[in-house]
TrEMBL record:
<feature type="repeat" description="PPR">
    <location>
        <begin position="377"/>
        <end position="411"/>
    </location>
</feature>
<dbReference type="Pfam" id="PF01535">
    <property type="entry name" value="PPR"/>
</dbReference>
<feature type="domain" description="CFA20">
    <location>
        <begin position="619"/>
        <end position="669"/>
    </location>
</feature>
<protein>
    <recommendedName>
        <fullName>CFA20 domain-containing protein</fullName>
    </recommendedName>
</protein>
<dbReference type="InterPro" id="IPR007714">
    <property type="entry name" value="CFA20_dom"/>
</dbReference>
<dbReference type="InterPro" id="IPR002885">
    <property type="entry name" value="PPR_rpt"/>
</dbReference>
<dbReference type="InterPro" id="IPR046848">
    <property type="entry name" value="E_motif"/>
</dbReference>
<dbReference type="GO" id="GO:0009451">
    <property type="term" value="P:RNA modification"/>
</dbReference>
<dbReference type="Pfam" id="PF13041">
    <property type="entry name" value="PPR_2"/>
</dbReference>
<dbReference type="InterPro" id="IPR046960">
    <property type="entry name" value="PPR_At4g14850-like_plant"/>
</dbReference>
<dbReference type="InterPro" id="IPR011990">
    <property type="entry name" value="TPR-like_helical_dom_sf"/>
</dbReference>
<feature type="repeat" description="PPR">
    <location>
        <begin position="73"/>
        <end position="107"/>
    </location>
</feature>
<dbReference type="Pfam" id="PF20431">
    <property type="entry name" value="E_motif"/>
</dbReference>
<dbReference type="Pfam" id="PF05018">
    <property type="entry name" value="CFA20_dom"/>
</dbReference>
<dbReference type="GO" id="GO:0003729">
    <property type="term" value="F:mRNA binding"/>
</dbReference>
<keyword id="KW-0677">Repeat</keyword>
Length: 672
């Protein structure tokens, strides 16, 4: 010890026990039924102090006190290893264990179980095997349930299979709840949900010791399978074994129902739950975020009215629901609530706000939030790039990508798809191809089907259909349905009939499962006048279970959102919209414009349906209300552009307002 260093432990300087305390301890009348008071020695007191230091996060003070101790027993060494583990300093914990062995100190079962947690934290399988050998040598493996469970955990986490963990599990003579939970967790966390459920079933059949944790993990395994029937069976087991009053278990079941797309069952369970906490409400709101975003708002309002305080997770889900519905006004109100509660610097919440404003057409506020963030992660950059791409700002997206790379953040597959999509919508073909070539060379990202699909779309939108077809032919794997869909869409838009027919035949050979693919093929054949092919496709469509989700466009007027679906019913302005539509058609004919039927949708009766985007433009024209927000598809075909130009001229002449020149109008991709 260096001279002048402050000592935390001194054998000579300490305060004596106060007289009143000493007399109280010595009072026989108070201690007649209690064992005599045996004060701890200085080593025991120092060990307790070390534990307190670690509990407070004072790691250096704990180490200093440990170094000053003249006598250290196995409890002290174990306290140091456990303390470092609790602070996630697993490397230091392993160093202490090695130092302990060099001092010749014999480890006990608690030491070995603690150091096995260290091996798990380090993902060091070799170290775990060394400790396993020491446990066999000391005789603790097989005789201590703590060591056996810790060994299982290490092997389940660090090994490539569950074989070693299963071998340790089978060697345990008397398994407890931790043993079963560790086995179920090991299978589930490595993605083998069915293996976890088999272990859970074995636990029930062997009448093993049950715990809420084992049920929660089994429910999570059911959720990952997406099979509602399995989840219902586990739910029944929860009730049969008396865990229906355990709130974490019931929250897991609630989440499982949503992941199994069983929203009705989830809602029924929610109303039947006798206890609810913030996690319960958050699970319900997050579950409806994608299934039925409007329900998320209703549940959020109910949550606040019942006195529950929303946290960052709550707001993240509700903001995402706003983005899905393009409810800009509601999103702005939520943003104000976030700011008032001091959540504005939360990273995940800021990312959700960037995405919401982008989807609602307000890319300026998206960039404002992004630029004001004190720290950004990969999701932040990706959300901003997706927003730029959806609004046709490809150059801004590429600048942002280059800035992200310069900041030291490594791009992943998602962000590269975002920048490729932005280049595609902005017509930056050469720039997008350059990023595609850099994928493996600089970013170490192997292009998959989705990335190739982005490049095919990039070339197809620019009219370079032949290059897109050559790219597909030279792919290192067999193209999937989505790639042929992108190519066929490009062929239809740019009237490349020969390649289109080839793409259509390839798609039919694959026997596609998506209804949208059959609709695209049907429209392609209809445009070609091949009504026999259309009839055959309609027959095939009746044989598939899923239906194509209709494209939707919407407009926000006076804080109310009106949505339009292809072939669907109009809003209350039905008659006015039809009247304006008839005038528009007459006006377009007077200008000598021939209607391009390929821009419209052929329904199953071979009639022409007006797309949803034309319908909401009619509403905008008849209402003449400002400001308004329009959420529209960003189409690249000439037919739609011509309709846009004629509509702009018509609205300007008829009402003195050109909706395309209005600053508050933003165009985005349609929900389809």
């Amino acid at each position: 010890m260096m001279t002048g260093t402050r000592k935390l432990l001194s054998p000579t300087h300490f305060r004596p026990i106060p007289t009143i305390v000493h007399n109280s301890l010595a009072d026989d009348t108070q201690l007649n039924s209690i064992a005599p008071f045996c004060p701890k020695d200085i080593s025991g007191l120092a060990t307790d102090l070390i534990k307190s230091y670690f509990d407070k996060g004072c790691i250096e003070e704990a180490r200093m006190l440990f170094d000053e101790m003249s006598h250290r027993d196995v409890v002290t060494w174990t306290a140091m290893i456990t303390g470092y583990n609790s602070c996630n300093h697993h490397g230091r914990a392993w160093s202490v264990f090695c130092e302990m062995l060099r001092y010749g100190m014999r480890s006990n079962e608690f030491t070995l179980s603690a150091v096995l947690k260290t091996c798990k934290g380090l993902s060091a399988l070799l170290c775990g095997k060394l400790v396993h050998g020491l446990a066999i040598k000391n005789g603790t493996q097989g005789s201590s349930i703590y060591v056996d469970n810790a060994l299982m955990d290490v092997y389940a986490t660090c090994c490539s299979s569950m074989d070693s963990a299963r071998m340790v599990f089978e060697s345990i003579l008397k398994k407890n709840a931790v043993s079963w939970t560790t086995l179920i967790t090991g299978y589930t966390h490595r993605g083998d949900a069915y293996g976890g459920l088999r272990a859970f079933r074995q636990m029930l059949l062997e009448e093993g010791e049950l715990s809420p944790f084992s049920f929660s993990i089994a429910v999570r395994a059911c959720a990952s399978t997406g099979l509602g029937n399995l989840g219902k069976q586990v739910h029944a087991a929860v009730i049969n074994h008396g865990f229906e009053s355990n709130l974490p278990v019931m929250n897991s079941i609630l989440d499982m129902y949503f992941k199994s797309c069983s929203a009705c069952e989830a809602k029924q369970l929610f109303f039947e739950m006798s206890q609810k906490d913030t996690i319960t409400w958050n699970t319900l709101i997050a579950g409806f975020e994608t299934l039925d975003p409007k329900q998320s708002f209703c549940i959020f309002s109910q949550m606040v009215s019942e006195g529950f305080s929303p946290n960052c997770f709550t707001f993240t889900s509700v903001v995402a629901a706003c983005g899905n519905l393009a409810f800009l006004y509601c999103g702005q109100q939520l943003h104000g609530g976030i700011f008032r509660r001091g959540f504005n610097n939360n990273l995940a919440l800021s990312n959700a706000l960037i995405d919401m404003y982008g989807k609602c057409g307000n890319i300026t506020d998206s960039h404002k939030i992004f630029s004001q963030m004190p720290c950004k992660n990969l999701v932040s950059w990706t959300s901003m790039m997706i927003g730029y791409g959806a609004h046709g700002h490809g150059k801004e997206a590429t600048k942002l990508f280059n800035e992200m790379v310069r900041s030291g953040i490594k791009p992943d597959r998602i962000v590269l798809m975002a920048v490729l999509s932005a280049c595609s919508h902005a017509g930056l073909v050469d720039e997008g191809l350059r990023y595609f070539r850099l994928l493996t060379r600089f970013y170490n990202v192997a292009p998959d089907q989705e990335i190739y699909g982005c490049v095919v779309d990039l070339l197809g939108r620019a009219g370079r259909v032949k290059e897109a077809y050559q790219l597909i032919e030279n792919m290192p794997f067999k193209p999937d349905e989505s790639i042929w869909v992108a190519l066929l869409g490009a062929c239809k838009a740019h009237k490349q009939r020969s390649i289109g027919k080839l793409a259509a035949s390839r798609m039919l050979e694959m026997k596609p499962n998506r209804a949208g693919t059959y609709v695209l093929l049907s429209n392609f054949f209809a445009a070609e006048g091949n009504w026999t092919g259309v009839a055959c496709l309609r027959k095939l469509m009746r044989g598939i279970k899923n239906k194509k989700e209709a494209g939707m466009s919407w407009i926000e007027l006076k804080n109310q959102v009106y949505s339009f679906v292809v072939g669907g019913e109009f809003v209350s302005s039905n008659e006015q919209i039809v009247e304006v539509l008839e005038v528009l058609i007459t006006h377009m004919k007077d200008f000598g414009y021939t209607l391009d039927l390929d821009c419209f949708v052929h329904d199953q009766e071979n009639e022409i349906c007006i797309p949803s985007d034309e319908l909401f433009c009619m509403l905008q024209a008849v209402t003449r209300v400002k400001p308004y927000i329009c959420t529209m598809p960003l189409r690249m075909d000439d037919g739609w552009n011509q309709i846009q130009l004629n509509l702009a001229d018509f609205t300007k002449r008829a009402y003195g307002t050109n909706y395309m020149e209005t600053p508050r109008v933003q165009r985005m991709q349609t929900v389809a």
